[in-house]
Amino acid sequence: MGGARLLIPKDGENVLYVHGVIYEAAKAMATDCEVELIKKSGDLDQKTIDDVKSHNPQYVGFDTFEVSTYLKLKKHLKGVRLKAQSKLVWDLRKVKDETEIQCMRKAAELADEGTKVAFETVVPGLREYELAAEMEHAMRRLGSEGVAFDTIVASGICSAFPHGGCTDRKIESGDLVVLDLGSTYKHYRTDLTRTIVMGKPSTKQIKIHQIVKKAQEKAFQGTYERAKASDVDLTARRIIEDEGHGEHFVHGLGHGIGLEVHEPPTLNPESKDILKTGNVVTIEPGIYMVGFGGVRIEDTVLVQKEKAERLTKTPYELTIK
Question: What CATH number was assigned to the domain covering residues 5-84?
Answer without folding.
Answer: 3.40.350.10
